[in-house]
Amino acid sequence: MKLGRIVAAASAIVALACGSALATPSTQIWIPSPDVKGFKDIHIDIDSYTRFSGKSENGYNPNLYNIGVSAGVLPLENVKLEVGVDFLKSGYQDDSVYGYDRAPFYFNAKLGTPEDAFGIKGLPTFAIGAYNLGTYDKPERGLSTRQNIVYGLVGKTLPVIGRLSAGGYYGAERALGKGANSGVMASWDRSMPEISDKLWLAADYMSGNNANGEVSIGGSWTFSKQISLVVGVVFFNPFYTTSASDPSSGNGNINPGGKPALTTQLDIAF
User: Fold this and answer.
1) How far is 143 from 134, CA to CA, in rounded Å?
2) Contact between 145 and 137 (Cβ < 8 Å)
3) Mean pLDDT score, 124-130
4) By C-alpha distance, which of 129, 152, 6, 165 is closest to 76?
5) What are phi and psi of 31, to 5 degrees?
6) Domains of the chain, first to last
């Protein structure tokens, strides 16, 4: 089957499955992981991010809810490609309060190679991708969902320690903020067979004084081959401080990512 037909078929599956759908790329807790879905692997994700504080004086602190679908579309062993579409809504009932709800669809894609690919023992995993590819851009209203974050990651599994990955990203300045649209990504994750083969732990970090900068920790429990649940905490921009030149400094120390959030992420695989 030609690649063009494969991609077209997978895109049709994604479109049909997401009347109100969201699927971030394969992630750790918050940032993308080096993993890429295999051919015909389809995942539905039901995610929530519930803030520990919703006080308005701390800036916008919307709870976020996702439902989504993503699929592996490349029938190769050593090079994999996944695509997804996101449907992201806040807890506000009125989209005039949180304007990003007006355009809740986002798209993503990731291309990568697994560890030891092409028969090269010890070769790390590599991944490049893009996510938060939004559809709304109204600079006159001060709103843009086109974060258009492009990233690259390298990961390696080490004995006992687990897998370490690191890389960087670059996004749209208009959506992320001037001087805050690039940074580094890093993560650690490990299966915990000493406790249970069903348990997986992870921590990740994303720099940048924007809505995505964070430190997060969490874990996953696999209930079956098809169902797993991630529970974690995301601390947005824990090292953020304002300065006299910060436009929000007059309103106090307003973190661009908002208050920390408890996240639950249900993954259903087909």
Assistant:
1) 11
2) yes
3) 98
4) 6
5) -85, 165
6) 3-269 (2.40.160.40)
pLDDT digits (tens, 9 = 90+) for 1-18: 343 333 333 333 333 333
pTM: 0.85
Of residues 111, 52, 57, 64, the one with CA closest to residue 92: 64
Could you give the CA distance from residue 14 to residue 39 in angstroms, rounded to a whole number?
14
Q: What angle do CA 98, 214, 87 make, to 5 degrees?
A: 40
What does the block give as tokens for 100? 């990003």
Can you say how many angstroms the Cα of residue 125 is from the centroid of all Cα atoms in its chain?
18
Q: Which residue has the tokens 């169902």?
A: 227
Nearest Cα neighbor of 83 from 31, 131, 18, 146 is 131
Of 88, 114, 84, nearest to 101 (Cα)? 88
Q: Which residues pair with 169 in a beta bridge?
A: 151, 183
User: Looking at the DSSP assignment, which residues form a beta bridge with residue 115?
Assistant: none
Instruction: Collapse the DSSP code of 174 into the 3-class scheme (helix H, G, I; strand E, B; otherwise coil) and give the result.
Output: helix
Helix (H, G, I), strand (E, B) or coil at 267: strand
